[in-house]
Amino acid sequence: MTDTPVLSVRDLVVDFPLRRGNFRALDGVSFDIAAGEVLGVVGESGAGKSMTGAAVIGLLEPPGRITAGEVHLSGTRIDTLPPAQMQALRGKRIGMVMQDPLTSLNPLFTIGDQLVETIRQHMDLSEDQALERAISLLEEAGIPDARGRIHAYPHQFSGGMRQRVVIALAIAADPELVIADEPTSALDVSVQAQVIKVLKDLCQRRGTAVMLITHDMGVIAQIADRIMVMNAGRVVETGPVAQVIRHPREDYTIKLISSIPTIARTGEPPPPPAQDSAPAFVQVQGLVKDFDAGGGWLARVLGRAVPPFRAVNDVSFRIARGETYGLVGESGSGKSTCARMIAGLIEPTAGRVVVNGMDVWQVSAAERARRRAVQMIFQDPYASLNPRWRVGNIIAEPIRVLGLAKGSEIEDRVADLLRKVRLDPIVMRKFPHEFSGGQRQRIAIARALSSQPEFIVCDEPTSALDVSVQAQVLDLMSELQGEFGLTYLLISHNLAVIRQMANDVGVLHRGVLVESGPVDAIFDHPQADYTRMLLDAVPDLADIE
Amino acid sequence: MLIFIVRRLLQSVIVMLVVALIAFLIFRYVGDPIVSMAGVDTRLEDQELMRERLGLNDPFYIQFWNFLTNALHGDFGISYRLQQPAMRLILDRLPATIELAVVSATLALVLGVLMGIFTALRARSFLSGVIMTLSLVGVSLPTFLIGIGLIYIFAVELQWLPSNGRGTTVQLGWWRTGFLTESGLRSLILPAITLSLFQMTLIMRLVRAEMLEVLRSDYIRFARARGLPDRVINFRHALKNTLVPVITITGLQLGSVIAFAIVTETVFQWPGVGSLFINSVQAVDVPVMATYLMMVGLVFVTINLVVDILYYLVDPRLRVQGKGR
């Protein structure tokens, strides 16, 4: 018991004095992290996870401030340090990794510049020594050819590589504690697994304590030693990972864990697919989309034209009426491009999309019918609703445009739709910003349903939502499917969501459909190497012993 | 990079051709040149003869071609009013305008950027509030009023500075400069301030807005989390990112400082191209107006080209796209 923990937080309270009274963001948070230990902090958005990290490193956004409690770093109290000393401590004794690797590096400086600058800030090294250290840090973080790439700019690296650079920056001065705030949420699963491994290896080798903030239980399960569950600014439960996940004590933890979709089959397998002879409701044949990769006419004249980039390459599949087809793949695999072509938003370079016997891109007379029969739900419920319109108007717009109802009948329909997505019809007078993410996605679903479509293209409908909300939205989608006999094309990077929702699944890799078939067959017996790699990379709670 | 510059150059040539066409159309179709040249008692046969000799009966494209070739040789015709080559008139007056524009643009840029940074970093301080309020005055007061106000205070009441003209000038080759004499420099102060005030407040507000935006970004937060001192964060990381959009606007504004110094030059009786232009408009002196139009076009095209190249140098992301993937 002689070991002092690296980080010790006692009864931390963070207040935001606002005009309309005080908002208490953190309320009596206490925890310890020992040297070499990884503490996973989970909770839904707004639970105060990131706030805890920011409070520890002394970077609370004003007007937020610590009003009570203590933060000790290796036995020294740091929350009362003057700003200048706190700044000297950041980077040197506490490192930080932020969520989005695409925006956390300064785009106008080379990664070498940024590393050397940080190293020389904290260590008494010459320019050359600092550069050497930077190169070895990058090598440790798993960047191939670090020496050759040290003078590259951030945009010349992929997301995963950039996050390695960020990790290298965070540990540049050998801090005792690293705060990793959602380090992998912006990355693809396969990359996510690599980055987690890098973080864990580096910290283990140096005996660095890690505070890992994430909403993804799978990530915690892979890397953390202990877990701390937060809700509404309070600590709900703390304990070893396996214990909390297997035997959660608190109601909130139980609810949180049960709402995480798992990639293993739970419940009833979907009914066997209808015979192939049954006419497919949606049929996609040889879909191709090329994007002009730029260059312009002068480059073409000078013979330096760039060949067009083929985003989607010969994709074919079919969906039977009333079923769900899941399309998975990593970012850049062409999922969303496929979705837009199928929904009729961008024109394919080649190929056919036949919905209910009508070719979406050939029969121009069918356009009106298609607009009615095919609808889309987008990923970001914050960006896909017009912020200046009332909810009632947003939902009524397709009804008006398509002339499906007139006068007061419209309002009745909107009220009916809101009831269907389990919202009170009274909300039609409100604006989108008055709703939470999950409620907004319900509004988006109500809008999609308003034209009484038969086929809905859902592009990552839940990836911007918290797990418990995700579970509710997915349940709602299943119920509506049963109620109205809807056909879904569900696009997601989350394999667990696809497993729970889809009948059939297609795996996209660089625009090519590498595998397509019934979901159980593919998930249990993947044929393509890429599918196997994807499945292996998924962190799963079931793996915890 | 080379392809990029060549492409921009070709675009510039197209723009200049369009400007030339408009200048030519003014030249040719705003009133009949023969009528303005000939007296009341010139016989119709003589008028016809002049028409023939000046090539005004040729088809449109031949006339345009002649105009272009002449323009390339610096020949824009003879000023109706002053009976001198229009090009020479402009060139004689250009140094005065350029000196005024350069001084006021530098003033605007330096003070504007400095005050912009200050008001962004100390957004809540009292001095920032004062600067922001005054900048509103600078944006909303018309230039001529500022000029007249300055003349009233510093030239009429205090009698510190001259109210008009360039003072004593020195001839350096074809360039007539006011930089080398005390009276020349003193004469420059008031018009330069007048001309720069609007640009200065504009640049300041732009820098402030951009800087506030950049300071909220993730990479600045991450730089803080790495323990970099405020000085490095503000002046190295934030400022360089702020400058990217500022360069564009400033470049365009610089163009308008040169091109539209008209009001300031008129108020201060500054012998530059702006006041020449105003006098030419009053006298319907078409060749001078056409030349002025071409010159302004050239200034804007050149500045835009320079701005694009600067953009390229500041932002590495553009460089890579230029090379192709």
Automatic annotation (TrEMBL), chain A:
SUPFAM superfamilies on file: P-loop containing nucleoside triphosphate hydrolases
GO cellular component: plasma membrane
Predominant location category: membrane
Subcellular location: Cell inner membrane
GO BP annotations listed: peptide transport; transmembrane transport
Gene Ontology molecular functions: ATP binding; ATP hydrolysis activity
Membrane topology (UniProt): Peripheral membrane protein
Keywords: ATP-binding, Nucleotide-binding, Transport
Annotated InterPro entries: AAA+_ATPase, ABC_transp_ATP-bind, ABC_transporter-like_ATP-bd, ABC_transporter-like_CS, Oligopep_ABC_C, P-loop_NTPase
Domain ABC transporter: 7-257, 282-535
Database matches in Pfam families: ABC_tran, oligo_HPY
PANTHER family: D,D-DIPEPTIDE TRANSPORT ATP-BINDING PROTEIN DDPF-RELATED, TRANSPORT ATP-BINDING PROTEIN
NCBIfam families cross-referenced by the UniProt entry: PRK10419.1, PRK11308.1
Entry's family note: Belongs to the ABC transporter superfamily.
Name of the protein: Peptide/nickel transport system ATP-binding protein/peptide/nickel transport system ATP-binding protein
Lineage: Bacteria, Pseudomonadati, Pseudomonadota, Alphaproteobacteria, Rhodobacterales
From TrEMBL, chain B:
Any GO BP: transmembrane transport
Membrane spanning residue stretches: 12-30, 100-121, 133-155, 188-207, 243-270, 290-314
Pfam families in alphabetical order: BPD_transp_1, BPD_transp_1_N
GO cellular component: plasma membrane
Membrane topology summary: Multi-pass membrane protein
Residues covered by the ABC transmembrane type-1 domain: 94-311
Entry keywords, A to Z: Cell membrane, Membrane, Transmembrane, Transmembrane helix, Transport
Coiled-coil regions listed in the entry: none
Source domain of life: Bacteria
Location within or outside the cell: Cell membrane
Family, per entry: Belongs to the binding-protein-dependent transport system permease family.
PANTHER family in UniProt: ABC TRANSPORTER PERMEASE PROTEIN, DIPEPTIDE TRANSPORT SYSTEM PERMEASE PROTEIN DPPB-RELATED
The name this protein goes by in its record: Peptide/nickel transport system permease protein/oligopeptide transport system permease protein
Lineage, uppermost ranks: Bacteria, Pseudomonadati, Pseudomonadota, Alphaproteobacteria, Rhodobacterales
